[in-house]
């Protein structure tokens, strides 16, 4: 039976893990299912934003019971990084809506998203060292990039989970809401993004990624300028500016 669901409504896609008996711990089958659903999202021209949200608990990490007896080769086969990289590289914006526990591979999934929103009693962290391993699904790279080296090392070396407020102070999450409002808040933000020029949103996500990866700042600024100018070949740029001048809402067509 499927343990991952996808719904796409009014331009907002949502992927959810449904494995409440294990606090939505992630195993190979779940991550492979997610992989296939990502293809569906990418193919759906109406999708403007993707939310990852699972009821009660975002995900209590990779499935420890499934991993416990792995040897080195088995551990490599268990690794989630190829799918996580695919999420990080999706052209459309992604939001992690975090309720309850987001630990280990669960929090690493949240770290692949562009934006993170947490409920006030969410608990987030990287407890891998308590199990004799370390984060192995992009955490050692994405966490320091998000919060800086010192906070990343504190989180990863202690393995302690932090509260939503502490995560907010560190910059691990963008905002904190009431527990009951986590999905609604993510959906509200997704809808705001969905109203913006879709070509510009996809292009700016790519430009930000390339800028962060580009060691030469001047080259990064050149890339920005090239892509920015390219937008003036699009229908949506003409429509967006015309709508402003005519004092009406734009009708973007994603072209
Ligand atoms: N893997 C497998 N099963 C898990 C799990 C996990 N990561 N997390 C929770 N579960 C299961 C528990 O075994 C339990 O199942 P049973 O009833 O069959 O025993 C059920 O979910 C409920 O969990 P608890 O009884 O433990 O619930 P709790 O409220 O007392 O504690 C918790 C909650 C603090 C999150 C605790 O479950 C916990 O510490 N979980 C493990 C968290 C963790 O270490 N995650 C990192 C995994 S390693 C990883 O992610 C590697 C990577 O980099 C990819």
From TrEMBL:
CDD domains reported for this sequence: crotonase-like
Enzyme class (EC, first level): lyase
Record-linked Pfam families: ECH_1 (PF00378)
Reaction(s) the record says it catalyses: a short-chain (3S)-3-hydroxyacyl-CoA = a short-chain (2E)-enoyl-CoA + H2O
The protein's Enzyme Commission number: 4.2.1.150
Pathway terms, separated by semicolons: Lipid metabolism; butanoate metabolism
GO MF entries: 3-hydroxyacyl-CoA dehydratase activity
One BP annotation, GO: fatty acid beta-oxidation
Keywords linked to the UniProt accession: Lyase
InterPro entries: ClpP/crotonase-like_dom_sf (IPR029045), Enoyl-CoA_hyd/isom_CS (IPR018376), Enoyl-CoA_hydra/iso (IPR001753), Enoyl-CoA_hydra_C (IPR014748)
Subunit structure as annotated in this protein's UniProt entry: Homotetramer.
Family, as annotated: Belongs to the enoyl-CoA hydratase/isomerase family.
PANTHER family in UniProt: ENOYL-COA HYDRATASE, MITOCHONDRIAL (PTHR11941:SF54), ENOYL-COA HYDRATASE-RELATED (PTHR11941)
Name by which UniProt lists this protein: short-chain-enoyl-CoA hydratase
Species of origin: Emergencia timonensis
